[in-house]
Amino acid sequence: MKLNNGFLLMVLLSAVLLFAACSPNNVTKEDSLKDFFDSSKVDGCFAMFDNGTGQFTVYNLSRYKDSAYLPASTFKIVNSLVGIETGRIVNEKMVIKWDGVVRKHDNGDTIKEWNKDLTMAEAFKVSCVPYYQEVARRIGKDTMQQWLDSLKYGNRKIGGSVDSFWLNNSLKITSDEQLGLVKKLYFSQLGFQKRTQDIVKKVMLQEDNANYKLYYKTGLGYRENGRSIGWIVGWIEENHHPYFFVLNVEGDPNAELWTIRKKILTGILKKEGFFEGKK
Fold first, then answer.
1. Other CB atoms closer than 10 Å to residue 265's CB: what's the count?
2. Which of 10, 32, 86, 100 has the fewest Cβ atoms within 10 angstroms?
3. Beta bridge partners of 247
4. Closest Cα to residue 272, out of 20, 58, 39?
């Protein structure tokens, strides 16, 4: 069996051991993590890979490896990589001017952080959709397709529109593939120049203190049936030791996944002993 852009082979082989002997050496099915999802009234999965020990911890293995969903704004990782590699984004300081269209949240509140000129780093941090839609248009459909194929990213489907395929359920990806992508990015093993990957890693840094560094990208969208999907993908680094993770959550259309997803991630990481610099 060939490894397909992630940890799928490892997980499948480990799953066989799990069901046969119930004691795999490197996989822990952490069913206790279900409480974090249940308390927020959402479904989902979580997985973490300890690069130093090879230990893999997962909740809801079947969803993790078999179910694919729109990547939503987690696709800004790839959009940034392709944009920089092709020169459509010069660097993280490149400004794209606001088009003057006032965007609003679903509840009617103005998205103030989007309605202005932004650098790439700023647009990445506030997950500005219009900025990255313009980047995708500048990249073009054919070039974008070539990179999706090269990366073996999800189902690789763009559909009819180059500026919305990651939002409209044309493109779909599994949690396993998301985890594999950020691991390769960390080690600069994707098919991009090192400079390109270094810039994207830099803008993914969300928290930095004496105990840890936390890198991630969030995503939020809606399935065809109206259910909401939330993501957080990235890694946490303590004592120069990376742990790669992916969180996928699903809830009712009105579920406040933008806060629920971070609450779940923080709770799980605390449970696993992170944030104290002792890992």
1. 22
2. 100
3. 46, 232
4. 58
Q: Is residue 2 part of a domain?
A: no
Q: What does the buried/exposed string (b/e) look like for 189-198 if buried means 16 or more CB atoms within 10 Å of the residue's CB? A: ebebeeebbe
- CATH code: domain of residue 86: 3.40.710.10
Q: Is residue 1 part of a domain?
A: no
Q: Which domain holds residue 211?
A: 8-14+25-271
Give pTM, 2 decimals: 0.90
pLDDT tens for the 279 residues of the chain, in order: 344 444 454 444 444 333 332 335 688 999 999 999 999 999 999 999 999 999 999 999 999 999 999 999 999 999 999 999 999 999 999 999 999 999 998 888 999 999 999 999 999 999 999 999 999 999 999 999 999 999 999 999 999 999 999 999 999 999 999 999 999 999 999 999 999 999 999 999 999 999 999 999 999 999 999 999 999 999 999 999 999 999 999 999 999 999 999 999 999 999 999 999 888
Q: Catalytic one among 14, 40, 73, 127?
A: 73
Q: Within 10 A of 148 (CB to CB), how many other CB atoms are there?
A: 20
Kindly state whether residue 249 falls inside one of the protein's structural domains.
yes
Q: Are strands 27-29 and 56-59 parallel, antiparallel or unpaired?
A: parallel
Asked if the structure places residue 47 within a domain, the reply is yes
Specify the DSSP class assigned to residue 110: B
Q: Residue 165 and residue 146: Cα distance in Å, rounded?
A: 15
Helix axes 194-204, 175-186, angle to 10 degrees: 110
User: How many domains are there within the chain?
Assistant: 1
Residue 73 annotated in active site: yes
